[in-house]
Amino acid sequence: MDDTLLVLTNLPDAASAAKLAHQIIKAHCAACVNQLAPCTSTYRWQGKIETASEVPLLIKTTIAAYPRLEALIHAAHPYELPEIIAVTVTAGLPAYLNWVSQETNESLRDPHMNLPKE
Known about the structure:
By secondary structure, the protein is an alpha+beta fold. The protein has helices spanning 14-26, 66-76, 94-103, and strands at residues 4-11, 32-35, 39-45, 48-62, 85-88. Strands 1, 2, 3, 4 and 5 form a five-stranded antiparallel β-sheet that branches. The radius of gyration is 15 Å and the shape is globular.
């Protein structure tokens, strides 16, 4: 159970969020991606306080699949410095957590996809 991660990232719009979510699932880098409603983010970037509308993704994966997921997000993300944060899941429905593990199994990955291996 302690090998499950919840990964968070934000995209600039719904279209880019949906595209990235599809790429993540197709590559078996995660079992599920939730695309949330747009939110407003306020942050400091290059010395200025910025405010932007962003679309959050909640990504369910495993520690074993995380390096592939991070590499995919970093390569496909439109931001220069994308937020990629992983939080350890400490509890959950065992059957769901097992499903996450099964769906991110390296053996399910399409060998023709050009993704970094762990």
